Amino acid sequence: MSLYSALYAGVSGLGAQSSAMATVADNITNINTVGYKGAEADFRTLVTDGRLKSSYSAGGVAAAPRAMISKQGLLQASSSQTDLGIDGGGFFVTRAGSGADSGIAFTRAGAFRPDEQGYLRNTGGYFLQGWRLDSTGGYTSTGGVSELEPVRLSGLTGTAAATTRLTARANLQSTQEPFTGAYAAGDMATGALEPHFSRTFEIFDAQGGGHQVTMGFVKTGPNQWVSEIYGDPADVTAANGLLASGNIAFNPDGSLDLANSSPALFGTLNVSWANQAGSSPINLNLGSQDGLDGLTQFGSASALIASSTDGGMLNNLVSVEVSKDGIVSAVFDDGTSRPVFQLPMATFANPDGLSCLPGNAYTVSQQSGNVAIGRPGELGSGNISAGTLEASNVDLAQEFTNMIRFQRAYSASSKIITTVDDMLQEVSALKR
10-46, pLDDT tens digit by residue? Predict the structure, then answer.
């Protein structure tokens, strides 16, 4: 009987509108949830008999929820550098626990904070995963999650690093009267010859100990200088403290003539410390051929323009910085920093097909396709924006509109049931 099919259609309408209203309720209540992805209700007809004939049997309606995971929310500024947003389609890789046997989860909720053990965890309790960087900044990746480990920042104190780089920009006065006496390598180091210009730099051994190294310059002729690099004879094993010496030539325009200068002053400096502390080869960056990026020779007074060295003792951790390409660096109270982790990004062929987990996270499903792991910026994953959080992608005005629509449709479906019930009562009354 068609009346009964109409009754069943009304019941299906109540169920479908109830399901749709549930998505609205979830969306509105999570309007302030970081990285929340809303859901929509897709309605489809239910057909009992598709043939057109004299009598019609109503099928009703069903509602299927559809996640809007691929829709990005607005990135909003945050006060914490460990708050991370993603400008693109990628996901952070996390685990439910700190152990390697904990389940993998993917999330856009980037409100990460150090816990009592130093692990970065978000508000859902998930542990942020990354590749640990070695001393050279490298890491091992096979494209899976087995090489990942929880990002932990505790214990990054008291680490020493030897100096591996010395960069200097300096001008040597072109009008300096040349030295006309006899010169032998080591005269500046021993004090037998006073340099026309000299500067001292602090470099570090592998134990974090600081040492003084001096560069001295003496003009010997037009566009020609000699230079020595030396340290305290009691501090280095080199004879008289002389570490390197040679000639420096300049072009007539004051730029560096590297081709006619001694390679010992522009290559690698090897130092052996008297205290038996380890050292690393120090790359000397003093300029390029025909360049003005290092040593120059102009008429102004000789002066050191800029210099920098690395290495030293890395003391107390004061902050964490995350670059757009996912490199997590620890910043220490002496102003130095060290890269410690590389964050991965996960991408999927169909992110809207991911299965939801508690805590605003997701896991792989048949509909999502397999996960692809890479660095930020690869595979369309997007870049990381530190100091930002992704807001919910829910449109509140649209949700209120939907709520009214679904409530009206629910009332209409209930009216179908009451009307059909009245009609059935009329049919029953005919038998009396």
Answer: 999 999 999 999 999 999 999 999 999 999 999 999 8
Cα separation, 41 vs 25, in Å, equals: 12
Predicted TM-score of the model (pTM): 0.64
Token pair recorded at residue 256: 């560096």
- How many angstroms separate the Cα of 205 from the Cα of each of 160, 166, 271, 272? 8, 13, 9, 9
Show contacts of 301-306: CB within 8 Å, 24+ apart.
Answer: 301/171, 301/173, 302/170, 302/171, 302/172, 302/173, 302/176, 302/196, 302/197, 302/217, 303/170, 303/171, 304/168, 304/169, 304/170, 304/199, 305/169, 305/170, 305/171, 306/167, 306/168, 306/169
> Residue 81's CB: how many other CB atoms inside 10 A?
14
Q: What radius of gyration do the chain's Cα atoms show?
A: 36
Q: Which residues of 381-405 are buried (b: 16+ CB within 10 A; e: fewer)?
A: bbbbbbbbbbbbbbeeeebeebbee
Measured distance CA(66)–CA(43) in Å, rounded: 10
Other CB atoms within 10 A of residue 152 CB: 20
Q: Which of 12, 5, 13 is nearest to 412 (CA)?
A: 13
| pLDDT level of residue 378 (50, 70, 90 thresholds) | confident
Q: What's the farthest any 2 CA atoms get from each other in the chain? A: 138
Q: What domains lie within the chain, and their CATH numbers?
A: 2-68+393-429 (no CATH), 75-158+316-390 (no CATH), 159-314 (2.60.98.20)
Beta strands in 28-87 (DSSP E): 39-45, 61-67, 75-77, 84-87
Question: CA-to-CA distance for 326 and 376, rounded, in angstroms?
Answer: 6
Rounded Cα distance between 215 and 244, Å, is 9
Give the C-alpha separation, 110 to 33, whole Å: 11
CB 389 within 8 A of CB 111: yes
275 burial via Cβ count (<10 Å: 0-12, 13-18, 19+)? exposed
Reported as type and span, the H/E element at residue 414 is helix 396-429
Contact criterion met (CB below 8 Å) for 214 and 229: yes
